[in-house]
Amino acid sequence: MPMKSSSDAEDVIQSLSAISTENGTDESWAKIATISARAPWVLHGSRLSSTRITEVESQKEVYRAASSSSEELSSLAFLDANTSVLCCAAGRLCVADIRQRGPLQALLIPSAQCGRRWRVAVGCSEPSSQPIACLSSAGQLVLMDVRKTTPCLASAQCRVPPSGSSAEFLCVTWAPALEGCLAVSGFDGAVHVYDTRSWDGSGAEAQPLFVHRGHAFGGRPSVTAHAWHPQKPRTLLSAATDGSLHIWDWVQPPGS
């Protein structure tokens, strides 16, 4: 193989293929989720009606959502190899099953109010009891199980700054190796870690186990995204609008 010079852009990254999408002029950003249970698949779309599952290597369309709704999507996630959850920004959840070609099963997030925007995160527990964490731009957190008729498993209110949030960077994630723990960011320059196991349905304010405020020193940036380390239970990564990237551990207080 011939050597390439360091100035050659292809020496850094090379495009292998591109998956065509619908509504190429849509102003809303496309959302994606991936899974490799059978073969590498990507779930993608910006609107409910344009949601599809495509096999990455062959670019074969595996599934197309049976919906004519143009609702904007805020989150996509696979529940298992056959089902996925689609969250509309206004607070409606839809469950898509590739084994069924009928209309999407839809339900409204409890207490979803007009004007608020929502994001969801799928838990890391066994598929039969996988919780869905729903986060609103007002700081409302709702835990749901879309596989059961129970509308709400628990709810709480997380702390948000008085100025509120534009919802552009809202992010909620379940810890992969800590039962019941999730992290929330996007309201300001902090990342909040919560233990949901004590939550009930009252919607009371939740007290965080830990708050990472490192991005806020020396300015007023907003955290744009965060992620849990897959092997280290208490290690997270977070990025902010000032270009900072932090890798940090949170320590649970003794006796808690």
List keywords for this structure.
globular; 256 residues; mainly beta; four-stranded antiparallel beta sheet; single chain
Give the N-to-C terminal Cα separation: 58 Å
> In percent, how helical is the residue content?
under 10%
Mean pLDDT: 85
Largest sheet: 4 strands, antiparallel
Low-confidence stretches: none
Shape: globular
Discrete helix count: 0
> Going across the major beta sheet, what is the strand order?
1-2-3-4
Q: How many DSSP-defined strands?
A: 19
How would you characterize this protein structure?
It is a single chain. This protein is mainly β. It contains no helices and 19 strands. β1 and β2 form a beta hairpin. The chain is globular and about 50 Å long. The N and C termini lie far apart (about 60 Å).
Produce the secondary structure layout.
Blueprint (H helix, E strand, L loop, with lengths): L30 E5 L5 E5 L6 E4 L5 E4 L8 E6 L4 E6 L3 E6 L7 E4 L9 E5 L9 E5 L3 E5 L9 E4 L13 E4 L6 E5 L5 E5 L14 E3 L10 E6 L6 E6 L4 E5 L7
Antiparallel strand pairs: 1-2, 2-3, 3-4, 5-6, 6-7, 7-8, 9-10, 10-11, 11-12, 13-14, 14-15, 15-16, 17-18, 18-19
Give a brief rundown of this model:
The protein has 256 residues and is mainly beta. It has strands at residues 31-35, 41-45, 52-55, 61-64, 73-78, 83-88, 92-97, 105-108, 118-122, 132-136, 140-144, 154-157, 171-174, 181-185, 191-195, 210-212, 223-228, 235-240, 245-249. It has a four-stranded antiparallel β-sheet, with no helix packed on it.
